[in-house]
C-alpha cells in the first residue's frame, strides 16, 4: 500500500486542523475564511478518491495509531462500505459549504461567520473520524465532537426559536451520549477491551449474556437518538427546519445517516451476526420501530405547511428505510441500506438547499407560497423535481436502485410485511413530493409572488444544487459501478 | 400522561440496570476480564515503552493519543459553539464593557490577588510539566490557569482581565492543543512509524527515550496552553453577555 | 449468584441509582438549569461506574515508584477514559449554559413550560412571522 495507508488519517485530521486554523485567518483576513474553509474538505475528498482505487473489496484496511497493535492502541479500520460513506460525507459537505458562501451571510453576521465555518469543518471532520474508527471509545469521542458542533450549528443564527430548537436537541442528545458511554463501560467491564475486532471475538466467548444484551440496548438507544429512529425523533423536525439551510442539508443528509451507520457498525463488527441470542430481540424491536417510522414520517410529511418541515419529516421516514435494510440481515438489505445513505444524502441535501434558495431569493418558507415558482426560478425548481424523483424512488434514479435492493433484501429474509411497508412508504413519498411539484409547475402564481425574469438563485448556490440532483440521477444510471463491490463487502460482514 | 410515561421509562431502566449489575463480574477481583486482558501491558511495559512513570499519562498521551486528540478537539468545539451562540467580545472595543458592578472590590482583596495569581500560574506550570511523573497533566494545568482567570475577572472586571490576556494573544493560541497533536503525529509519520508514533523506528536507539519524553512534554504544553486559552475565552464570552444584561 | 454479587458490587448499584436520578432530573424538572445539573449527575455516575470497573482489591495508584509491583496497581485505562469523558462533559455543559444565557436574555424565563407555551402562542398569533428575512 505504501503511502496510501496514511491517507485515512489525513482525511480525518485535515478538516479538524483546518477548523482550528480558521479563527487565526479570520482574525486577520475575514474575507478569505469561506474559501479557505473548503480547502481541507477538497483535500480529504481527493485523498479518498485516490484511496478508493487501492481499496480491497473484502476485509479491512487497518491503520494502527502510534504503531501500537490493536487491543493496546487505537485502530482505524476502514472497509469498502466505510470508505464509500466517507466519500459521500466529503462530497456533500463540500457542496453544502459552497452553498453557504452566499447564503450564510443573510442569516449569520459578524464574528459568528468564522465560528460557523469552524464548526462546519469540525462537523464534517468528526463524521469522517466517526465512520472510520475501529475503536469503540474513539467512536464516542468523535460522536461528541459531532454532537456538540451540530447543537451549536442549529443555534448559530442566535434568534430565539433557533436557540430553543438547539436546546431541545441538546437535551435529547446529551443523555443519549451518556447512555452510549455507559454501554461502553458495560462492554469494557465484561471483555476488558475497547477494540471492535477484539470485542467481536471476546463477545462470542463471553458468558455475561445479560450485560451484553443491556449494553446493546443502550447503544441502540444512544445512537438511535442521533439517527432519529422513530420514537426518539422528537428533536429532529424543529432542529432541521429552523437551522440555516446548508446545516439542515448536513444534518438531514449526513448526521442522521452516520448515526445509522454507527448502529450498522456496532451490530455487524462488534456484536456480529453470530450473537443472535444477544441482539435478536433488540433487532426485532428496531425493525418494528423502523416500519413505524416509515409510515409516521410519510403521513406527517403530507400534513406539513412548511417546506423544510415537510422535508424533515420525510427524513424520519427514510431513516426507517435504512433501518429496515440493516435489520434484514441479508447482503442485499445491507447494500440497499448503504446505497440509500448515499442517495438519501444527495437527495435530501438537494431538497434542503433548494428550500434554502427559495428562502434566500424570496424569503418564502410555506409550501402554498411556491405556487408558480417555476416562472421565476426554473433551475432551482427543476433540480428540486429531480431530487424529489429520487426521494420517491422512481427509475432511473439512485433512489430506485436502493429501494430495489432494500425490497429484495427483505424478501430474501422472508419479511413480506416490511416489503409492503416499504412500498406504502414510496406511495406516501409520491403524495408529498408531487404536491410540491404540482404547486411549483402547474399552478398560476399569486399576485406579485413570482414574476418571470425575476432574480434566480446565484451561481454559487445553483452549482451545488445541480451537482447534487444530477448525482441522484447518475448514481442511479451508473449504479453497476458500485453495487457489486458493495454486495461483496456486505457479504463479508455477514 | 407524558410524565407518567417518563416515570415508567425511568423505573424500567432502573430495574434493568440493577438486574444487570447483579450479573456483572465482581468488583476488584484480579481475575476480572478488565484486569487480565489489556491493562497488564500498560502497567508492565509502560515505563520502558513510553518513558512516563505515571501509567495514566502514558495511556492518555501515548497509547491512546488519538482519543486525546479528539478530546482537545471537543473543547475547541465547545469554544466555537459558545462563540457561535454568544459571540466573541468586540476587538479593541472591550472597554465599552467596563466594570459596572455596584460594589467595587476592596483593596485588600485586590492586593492579595495580585500576590496570589503568579503562584497559581506557577503551580499550573508545575502540574503541566510534572504530569508524566505524578498525577497531573495538560488539562489539569490548563484548568488551573482558567480558574485563576475566573478569580481575576470576578475581582477586577472584564476590562482589566482582557487587557492582561488580549484577543491578539488568545486567538492564535486557542488551537495549540490540536496543532501540537498534529505536528507530533506528522513527526511520527516522518520518523517511519504511523500517525502519533512516539517511538520512531528511523531514530537511533540511544536518542529514542529522550525524544519520547520531549514529544510528550510538547503535547502536554500544547494541551495546557490551549486549554487555558479556551477556558479564558469561554469565560470572557459568557461574562460579556452578563455585563450587557446589567447595563440594560 | 445474583444477590450476593449484587451486594458485593455496591459501587455499581450506587452508580446506577445516580444515573436514574440524573435521568429523572433531566426529564421531569422544569427549570433548565436543573436539567443541566441532572445531565452532570448522569455523567458523574458513569465516571464513577467506569472508575469502579478499574478498581482492584487493595490496589495502588498506577504510578511506578520504588517498591510497587505492576500487579498491585489499579487499571489505568478507565482513568484515562474518564479524563476524556470529563472534558467532554465540561464542553457540553459550557455549550448548554451559553444557550441558557441566550434563552434567558430572550425569554426572561428559565421554565420549560413557559418556553414551550410561548412557542405555541407565537405560532397562533403570527403565522407569517417567519418570512421576514428574504427582503
Short précis:
The complex is a heterotrimer of chains A (494), B (248) and C (135). Chain A is mainly alpha-helical.
Notes on the structure:
The complex is a heterotrimer of chains A (494), B (248) and C (135). By secondary structure, chain A is mainly α. Chain A has 18 helices and 2 strands. A two-stranded antiparallel sheet of chain A has the order 1-2. Chain A is globular, with a radius of gyration of 21 Å. Residues 92-97 and 243-248 of chain B have low confidence and may be disordered. Chain B has 248 residues and is mainly alpha-helical. Chain B contains 10 helices and no strands. Chain C is built from 5 helices and no strands. Chain C is elongated, with a radius of gyration of 23 Å. Residues 126-135 of chain C have low confidence and may be disordered. The interface between B and C is large, with 58 and 55 residues.
Mean pLDDT of chain B: 82
Overall residue-averaged pLDDT value of chain A: 88
Number of helices of chain B: 10
H/E series of chain A, N to C? HHEEHHHHHHHHHHHHHHHH
Strand-pairing-aware structural class of chain B: mainly alpha
Low-confidence stretches of chain B: 92-97, 243-248
Largest sheet of chain A: 2 strands, antiparallel
Number of helices, where a helix is a run of at least 4 consecutive DSSP H or I residues of chain A: 18
End-to-end gap of chain A: 26 Å
Rg of chain B, please? 23 Å
Question: What is this structure's SSE topology?
Answer:
The complex is a heterotrimer of chains A (494), B (248) and C (135).
Chain A: H1 7-28, H2 33-54, E1 61-64, E2 75-78, H3 80-107, H4 112-132, H5 136-154, H6 160-191, H7 196-205, H8 209-227, H9 236-242, H10 245-271, H11 276-303, H12 307-326, H13 331-361, H14 378-392, H15 398-412, H16 416-442, H17 459-477, H18 480-493
Antiparallel strand pairs in A: 1-2
Helix pairs in contact in A: 1-2, 1-4, 2-3, 2-4, 3-4, 3-10, 3-13, 3-17, 4-5, 4-10, 5-6, 5-10, 6-8, 6-9, 7-10, 8-10, 8-11, 9-10, 9-12, 10-12, 10-13, 11-12, 11-16, 12-13, 12-15, 12-16, 13-14, 13-15, 13-17, 13-18, 14-16, 14-17, 15-16, 15-17
Chain B: H1 2-22, H2 33-36, H3 39-50, H4 55-63, H5 65-86, H6 107-129, H7 138-164, H8 167-174, H9 176-190, H10 208-247
Helix pairs in contact in B: 3-4, 4-5, 5-9, 5-10, 6-7, 7-10, 8-10, 9-10
Chain C: H1 2-8, H2 10-28, H3 32-53, H4 76-107, H5 112-125
Helix pairs in contact in C: 2-3, 3-4
Amino acid at each position: 500500500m505504501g503511502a496510501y495507508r496514511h491517507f485515512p488519517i489525513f482525511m480525518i485530521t485535515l478538516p479538524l486542523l483546518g477548523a482550528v486554523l480558521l479563527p487565526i485567518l479570520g482574525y486577520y483576513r475575514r474575507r478569505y475564511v469561506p474559501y479557505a474553509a473548503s480547502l481541507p474538505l477538497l483535500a480529504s475528498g481527493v485523498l479518498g478518491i485516490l484511496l478508493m482505487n487501492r481499496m480491497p473489496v473484502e476485509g479491512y484496511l487497518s491503520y494502527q495509531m502510534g504503531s501500537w497493535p490493536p487491543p493496546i492502541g487505537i485502530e482505524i479500520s476502514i472497509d469498502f462500505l466505510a470508505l464509500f460513506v466517507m466519500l459521500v460525507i466529503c462530497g456533500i459537505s463540500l457542496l453544502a459549504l459552497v452553498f453557504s458562501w452566499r447564503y450564510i451571510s443573510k442569516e449569520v453576521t459578524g464574528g459568528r461567520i468564522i465560528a460557523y465555518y469552524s464548526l462546519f469543518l469540525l462537523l464534517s471532520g468528526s463524521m469522517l473520524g466517526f465512520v472510520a474508527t475501529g475503536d469503540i471509545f474513539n467512536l464516542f469521542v468523535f460522536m461528541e465532537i459531532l454532537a456538540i458542533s451540530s447543537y451549536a450549528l442549529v443555534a448559530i443564527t442566535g434568534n430565539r426559536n433557533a436557540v430553543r430548537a438547539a436546546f431541545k436537541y441538546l437535551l435529547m442528545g446529551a443523555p443519549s451520549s451518556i447512555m452510549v458511554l455507559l454501554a461502553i463501560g458495560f462492554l469494557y467491564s465484561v471483555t476488558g477491551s475497547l477494540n471492535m475486532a477484539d470485542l467481536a471475538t471476546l463477545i462470542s466467548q463471553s458468558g455475561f449474556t445479560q450485560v451484553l444484551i443491556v449494553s446493546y440496548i443502550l447503544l441502540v438507544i444512544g445512537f438511535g437518538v442521533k439517527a432519529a429512529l422513530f420514537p426518539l425523533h422528537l428533536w429532529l423536525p424543529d432542529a432541521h427546519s429552523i437551522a440555516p439551510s446548508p446545516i439542515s442539508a448536513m444534518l438531514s443528509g449526513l448526521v442522521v445517516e452516520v448515526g445509522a451507520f454507527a448502529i450498522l457498525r456496532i451490530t455487524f463488527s462488534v456484536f456480529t451476526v453470530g450473537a443472535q441470542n444477544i441482539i435478536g430481540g433488540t433487532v426485532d424491536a428496531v425493525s418494528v420501530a423502523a416500519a413505524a417510522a416509515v409510515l409516521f414520517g410519510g403521513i406527517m410529511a403530507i400534513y406539513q405547511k412548511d417546506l423544510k418541515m415537510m422535508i424533515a419529516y420525510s427524513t424520519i421516514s427514510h431513516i426507517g428505510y435504512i433501518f429496515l435494510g440493516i435489520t434484514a440481515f441479508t447482503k442485499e438489505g445491507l447494500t440497499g441500506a448503504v446505497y440509500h445513505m448515499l442517495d438519501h444524502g444527495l437527495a435530501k441535501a438537494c431538497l434542503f438547499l433548494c428550500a434554502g434558495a427559495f428562502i434566500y431569493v424570496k424569503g418564502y418558507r410555506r409550501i402554498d407560497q411556491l405556487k408558480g415558482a417555476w416562472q421565476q426560478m426554473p433551475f432551482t425548481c427543476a433540480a428540486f423535481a429531480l431530487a424529489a424523483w429520487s426521494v420517491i424512488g422512481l427509475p432511473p434514479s439512485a433512489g430506485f436502485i436502493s429501494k430495489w435492493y432494500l425490497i429484495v433484501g427483505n424478501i430474501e429474509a422472508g419479511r413480506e410485511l416490511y416489503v409492503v411497508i416499504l412500498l406504502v412508504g414510496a406511495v406516501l413519498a409520491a403524495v408529498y413530493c408531487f404536491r410540491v411539484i404540482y404547486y411549483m409547475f402547474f399552478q398560476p402564481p399569486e399576485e406579485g409572488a413570482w414574476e418571470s425574469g425575476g432574480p434566480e438563485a446565484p451561481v454559487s448556490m445553483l452549482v451545488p444544487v445541480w451537482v447534487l440532483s444530477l448525482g441522484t440521477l447518475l448514481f442511479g444510471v451508473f449504479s453497476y459501478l458500485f453495487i457489486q463491490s458493495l454486495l461483496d463487502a456486505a457479504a463479508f460482514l455477514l | 400522561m407524558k410524565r407518567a410515561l417518563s416515570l415508567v421509562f425511568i423505573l424500567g431502566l432502573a430495574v434493568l440496570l440493577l438486574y444487570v449489575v447483579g450479573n456483572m463480574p465482581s468488583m476488584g477481583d484480579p481475575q476480572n476480564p478488565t484486569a487480565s486482558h489489556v491493562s497488564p501491558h500498560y502497567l508492565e511495559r509502560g515505563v520502558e515503552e513510553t518513558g512516563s512513570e505515571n501509567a495514566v499519562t502514558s495511556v492518555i498521551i501515548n497509547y491512546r493519543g488519538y482519543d486525546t486528540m479528539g478530546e482537545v478537539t471537543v473543547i475547541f468545539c465547545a469554544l466555537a459553539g459558545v462563540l457561535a451562540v454568544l459571540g466573541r467580545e468586540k476587538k479593541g472595543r472591550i472597554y465599552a464593557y467596563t466594570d459596572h458592578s455596584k460594589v467595587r472590590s476592596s483593596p485588600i482583596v485586590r492586593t492579595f490577588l495580585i500576590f496570589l495569581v503568579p503562584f497559581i500560574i506557577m503551580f499550573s506550570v508545575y502540574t503541566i510539566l510534572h504530569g508524566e511523573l505524578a498525577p497531573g497533566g495538560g488539562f489539569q494545568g490548563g484548568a488551573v490557569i482558567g480558574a485563576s482567570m475566573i478569580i481575576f475577572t470576578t475581582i477586577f472586571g472584564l476590562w482589566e482581565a482582557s487587557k492582561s490576556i488580549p484577543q491578539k494573544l488568545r486567538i492564535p493560541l486557542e488551537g495549540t492543543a490540536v496543532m501540537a497533536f498534529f505536528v507530533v503525529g506528522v513527526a511520527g509519520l516522518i520518523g517511519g512509524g504511523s500517525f502519533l508514533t512516539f517511538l520512531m523506528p528511523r531514530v537511533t536507539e540511544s536518542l529514542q527515550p529522550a525524544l519520547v519524553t520531549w514529544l510528550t512534554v510538547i503535547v502536554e504544553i500544547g494541551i495546557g496552553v490551549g486549554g487555558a486559552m479556551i477556558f479564558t475565552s469561554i469565560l470572557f464570552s459568557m461574562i460579556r453577555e452578563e455585563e450587557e444584561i446589567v447595563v440594560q | 449468584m445474583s444477590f450476593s454479587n449484587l451486594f458485593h458490587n455496591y459501587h455499581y448499584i450506587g452508580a446506577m441509582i445516580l444515573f436514574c436520578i440524573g435521568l429523572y432530573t433531566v426529564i421531569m424538572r422544569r427549570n433548565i438549569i436543573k436539567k443541566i445539573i441532572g445531565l452532570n449527575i448522569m455523567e458523574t455516575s458513569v465516571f464513577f461506574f467506569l472508575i469502579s470497573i478499574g478498581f482492584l482489591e487493595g490496589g495502588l495508584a498506577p504510578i511506578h515508584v520504588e517498591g510497587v509491583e505492576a500487579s498491585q496497581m489499579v487499571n489505568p485505562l478507565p482513568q484515562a477514559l474518564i479524563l476524556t469523558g470529563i472534558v467532554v462533559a465540561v464542553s457540553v455543559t459550557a455549550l448548554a449554559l451559553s444557550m441558557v444565557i441566550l434563552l434567558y436574555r430572550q425569554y426572561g424565563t428559565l421554565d420549560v413550560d413557559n418556553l414551550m407555551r410561548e412557542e405555541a402562542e407565537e405560532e397562533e398569533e403570527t403565522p407569517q412571522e417567519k418570512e421576514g428575512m428574504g427582503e
